[in-house]
Amino acid sequence: MHSTDIAHAPTPEPATGDRRRWFALAIVMTAAFMDLVDVTIVNIAVPSIQRDEGATFSQIQWITAGYALAFAAGLVTGGRLGDIHGRKRVFLVGIGGFTVASALCGLAVNPEMLVASRILQGAMAALMVPQVLSIVHATFPAHERGKVFGLFGAIVGLGAVSGPLLGALLTEGNLFGLEWRPIFLINLPVGVAALFLGSRFITESKAPRALKLDLPGVALVTLALLMLLYPLTRGRELGWPVRGYVSMAGALVVFAALVAYERAKGARDGSPLIELSLFRVKSFAAGIAVQTVFGVGLGVFFLVWTLYMQIGLGWSALRAGLTGVPFSVAVSVAAGMSVQQLVPRFGRKVLQAGALVMAAGVLIYLVEAGHYGLGITSWQMALPLVVMGAGMGLIVAPLTDAVLSEVPREHAGSASGLINTVQQMGHALGLGLVSVVFFGVIDERLAPAEVGPAFVDGFTHALGWVAAVLGAIFLLMFALPKRPAQHVEAAAGAEEAPVTGEKEPELVP
């Protein structure tokens, strides 16, 4: 189909009879899983990388931080590129680049090459990930999206915890004598298959009017995010210098300049990078706030939890990974139930119940960790982890649904890019807070016998903060709509998307 045909093509609601949409869903979910696993899989292999490559502590920091920084800085841009050039096209470019970058990581001959490859991998993920929700939003009719977001929540839970387990198995297995390299090389067959199948089964979609890439907006958002995230990522290593605080304060100024510029750009030609009108949609604005704070809580918990098990308790990477399995299963089961059965009946109350259930799990963990000390077992951790996982599952899938439920499909790319960006920002803020809520209560110089008890104390202290964050999330959720729009419509038997006053996207066969 030529560009002139696209401009005058009809703009139907996605068809329910096209089976290709389920193949497309499986492909984009696989890509989302690859990204989620890749974020966590590296941490478990850091000792092997350091030993095998002779990497310095700073280089190790950048192997993990470089991915996160490139990912966060490029997400909004990646979403807009999908709106402009077609979500299928940009998704395929992203997954192809991600696969190539994974190969470069696995074949890295020195730490510098590994750091550069990880930054490239993060940039490619920033092209790939925003298209996932956009393709779902543009491919599935409103009454089916609840079920689809339930599946997405299950994938999120599975990916978040299976990364360390998979990393432990691949690293300790030392396949073909490759040490840590299989954690990256495993992406190659998956990426090639997704690229081939995606080109066949994903339906193209894009914004109906001719948008342009907002390069000054790209520069401002990238600068602001780097000024905020770089000091948070490197702060503890550098001793929290004054210039870091100056940079973070300056990021707020750049964010303010970004908002002013985007408002003027929207009024001038209607093609801003960030669609500020989205924030006038109450469900989107409230959901973004919840996503950010939720990211903070998860950022604190997962890093502190890993340090507590592997350094404090002295457990192997494999044992720590296996301990997280009950959490992963609980998230997956609860996410599916939440969207398909509970939210259509009870609406926002399900998300609020999730915040309270997860907080209860955190408090149970706090009590058990303090009571059993260094003698705690994986089985004793199972109860709080299952309760926490159930609470998280009740939140993750319907929260995404609630944030996007009233967003015009025309701006799905921009909206999903913002969702992922604020999640990464919140996660980075949480990682920065670890130096206060965890390391802040641990002496810098500890005798070997003091390390375990000190880490237990730090873990319980951090859990108190995580519980407080979940309490704040419960209160923020009162600003969410009582029922996401599509659930109301589905109950009424409607098959049309929410009335937004916006044109539907072009669907290009």
Describe what you observe in this structure.
This protein has helices spanning 3-8, 20-53, 57-85, 87-106, 111-139, 142-173, 182-185, 187-201, 215-238, 242-269, 282-312, 317-323, 325-346, 348-372, 378-404, 412-437, 448-476, 485-491; strands at 204-206, 506-508. The protein has 509 residues and is an all-alpha fold. The longest helix is centred in the N-terminal third of the chain and has 34 residues, at 20-53. It has 18 helices and 2 strands.
List strands and helices in order, with pairings.
Blueprint: H1 3-8, H2 20-53, H3 57-85, H4 87-106, H5 111-139, H6 142-173, H7 182-185, H8 187-201, E1 204-206, H9 215-238, H10 242-269, H11 282-312, H12 317-323, H13 325-346, H14 348-372, H15 378-404, H16 412-437, H17 448-476, H18 485-491, E2 506-508
Antiparallel strand pairs: 1-2
Q: For this entry, what is the oligomeric state of its chains?
A: single chain
Number of strands: 2
Tally of helical runs: 18
- Proportion in β-strands: under 5%
Summarize it:
Helices cover 78% and strands 1% of the residues.
Keywords:
mainly alpha, two-stranded antiparallel ribbon, 2 strands, disordered N terminus, disordered C terminus
